[in-house]
Amino acid sequence: MSAFGLAADARVLWRMLRGQPRTGSHAERLQGFYASQATRYDVFRARLLQGREALIADLDIRPGARIVDLGCGTGSNLAVMARACALSDLAGVHLIDLCPALLDQARQRARGHANIEVAEADAAHWRPALPVDRVLLSYSLSMMPDWPDVLDNAHAMLAPGGLIGVVDFRLPHHGPGRWFWRAWFSHDGVHLTDAHLPALQARFRTRAVGHGHAPLPYLPGAHAHHYRFVGAKD
Q1: What predicted TM-score, i.e. pTM, was given to this entire model?
Q2: What is the greatest pairwise CA distance in the chain?
Q3: Of 51, 53, 45, whose CA–CA distance to 15 is shortest?
Q4: Which pLDDT tens digit goes with each residue over 58-116?
Q5: Which of 1, 41, 92, 135 could link 154 by a cystine bridge, Cβ 3.0 to 4.6 Å?
């Protein structure tokens, strides 16, 4: 990696070590944490946020689909979607997030696509004008304090037979590392829990479940675990 890349990573790591601000609204805390990282966000986290490609492949996105990405961040999932289906062939894509700095990056990605909407809104309350075919939550559910309401909202906006896809961090199944990872991630506003998968399976008919792990940048031998879920609305 170049000296520039190392210096940029160092700034991201310093912000992560400082953690997410503890005061202000949820949106203000997100902005305070990510504003200085936004332009480097994708490069740094590409090594960590794995499983998105497999998830989007499982969602079987086809021409004419309407898609909502809740907690879209920088909109990086657009590039993955485009490998499954040309973005211009989709009926509509809605990118929803609360962090202005990350949404600035998403708007740059969406530029030139009249069928892509980027909105600063709460995933627990925002809803599209028409039912959608796919709802995606990619490493965002664990950052949403009212995540059960988000799942209820996702269920409500899906058309019958529509699919939800979630990939996110999870706690290790066993061992003392569970306490460490919960505390480590919570420092940066990511709240690990065993409750996501049971809640998803209770609300949606399970189509696919998977698990994996990815190395943590600059922490040799350390891995973050994640789950992948695809479910259908009956």
Answers
A1: 0.86
A2: 52
A3: 45
A4: 999 999 999 999 999 999 999 999 999 999 999 999 999 999 999 999 999 999 999 99
A5: 135
